[in-house]
Structures are given as C-alpha cells and as structure tokens.
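Late entry, written up from scratch paper. The run itself happened at the end of the previous shift, but nothing got recorded in the book at the time, so transcribing now.
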Amino acid sequence: MSTRLYDAAKLTVVTGGAGFIGSCVIRELNDREIDSIVVVDSLGSDEKWKNLVGKSFCDIVPEALLFDWLSSKPSSIGGIIHLGACASTVETNADFLLENNYRFTRRLLEFALQHRIRCVYASSAATYGDGSSGFTDSHEQLESLKPLNMYGYSKHLIDLWLYRNKLLNSVVGIKYFNVFGPNEWHKGRMASYVLKVVPQILASGKVDLFRSHRPDFKDGEQQRDFIYVKDAAAITCDLLDSDAGGIFNVGAGEAVSWNRLARAVFSALDRPPRIEYIPMPPDLIDKYQYFTQADVAKTESALNRKLCRYTLEDAVADYVKAHLLQELRW
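Output as recorded:
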C-alpha cells in the first residue's frame, strides 16, 4: 500500500452504523483505536440501537439530516463507509429501492468525489444474478451482469453509473457475499440461517433446508460463499485504509453447501445432525442463487493478504458459542 488516501485523524462517517455490518465495522475501527466516528442511521423503535452499546463514537446523525450535516463540514471528514441501504432481497417496491439504494448512494458518492474524501460503499453479490457470467469483480464484466431481484439491480445501477462515468477507480465498491455473525438480531427474514436455526435445534433437535428445484443440485447441496462478519469488517476497514480503487469481492472464496453449514451449527451446539427438506417459498424460486463463490484474487492482491482468519466451522462455532448462546453483540 504505497499511498494512504484515508485520514483517520479526521472524522470517519459510517452510514448504516447501527446495522449489522456497520456496527461490526465500528467495532473494528475501535479496535484500531479509531473513535472519531459519526454514526449515520435511523434507529426507529426496534432494538437496533443495542448494536452501538459499548462502542466509541462522537455523534449520531439521522440519515434524513445527513446531507445538511455533511455540507457544513466537508473538510473535517477523513473517510466515508457507506453501508446504509434497504438490504431486503425480497423487497418488491422498486421506487423505494431506487430512492434508498441508488439515488441516496449516488448523491453521497458525488459529495465524496467533489470533496476528495475517501469513500467505500456497499455493493452486493446479488448483482451477479444466477452466476452465469461468473463471480469475477472485473469492471469489464459489469455490463453483462443480470441481477435476479430488484435489490440486486438497485446496487448494480450504482456500479454501472460509476463505471460509465469513469469514476469507479476513485472509490471502493464492496461486493459482499453471504455475511453472517453477531449484531444481526434485528434483520428478521434477512437474518442469517445460523441465527434462525439455533433456537430451532435447541427446541426440536432438527433444522429445515429448502429442497432444490434444479436437477443439477441435490437437496441442501445448493452452495453459497459464506463469510463471517468479523472478517468482512476487517476487510472493509483495510480497503478504506488502502490506495485501492474499484469493485472488490468480499467473500471467503469458497462455495459451501447448506448441508455443511447446518452440520457446522449442530456441531457448535454439540448435537447430532438432523436435517429435513421443505419446499422453497414461491416468491424465491425464480430469484434464488444456487451457487455463489467469490473470486477473491483481486481483493487479496490489493490487501496483500489472505482475506479470512476464520474457517466456516470456526466462524459458526464462535458465533454460536460466544454470541448467540450468550446473547452478546460484538
């Protein structure tokens, strides 16, 4: 890393800072002795605020007031990590997704570029669609991608806007794959499988997995690239503090079956595996990714290290034993 573009002595703005990945990024920044952090989020009436307990930051700004706040002090901002968005892959209100995931992000990126502020924003592996065009974070591949849902398309539009305007190398776009781990209690249907099945195993001794609707995948052998949020947060902070620019995959670089993931949860709970297969919800059948695997060569090269400290089994064990069973956030 030859040039530092991020000034950690100034304010670090984290949008979606009370959310799942955002709160873990703040924990990672704190562990790096960075606490001049401005959290941008709408806390609402749920318990998302608990993700901020025990973390060091200097202010909380509601997202509705963000641009007024930014315009008053651009010279005091050293970096922006933009993670705030509607993250529901089953959201069908296209206008809502365009406003929250595209227009808001574009306006924030325009501000960062105008004031030469280092900016990392969240794209998504959902932009890869069914994977027929591969999972390589090459910029030349962007035009050929076909997301399967409106969420993925709203993220893809930002990547395309930057690419077509030759701005992509001036920021960092992170394509997160299947992130799981502490601080996701508030996510409801979008929470990870691990969070959902621990109570099920404790209560009934079994778990459910979706049946496959494709002959080339056996039940439970659909595969995803799962990455622990503690690894994802560290990679995000490393990319902020690098001279890298462009789109980067953030995943484990390994395709893991749902059967293997389920067995890892049983092992963490010291229970024998018992898996039953159920029909997939109709609204997911045509929008379901059967295989994802991040090509992480470009990200590893930019950071000059292997991305993940945790294996899948180690990550699941840490999440279950150190967080879920103890009801502890991170």
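The radius of gyration is 19 Å.
(Scratch paper discarded after transcription.)
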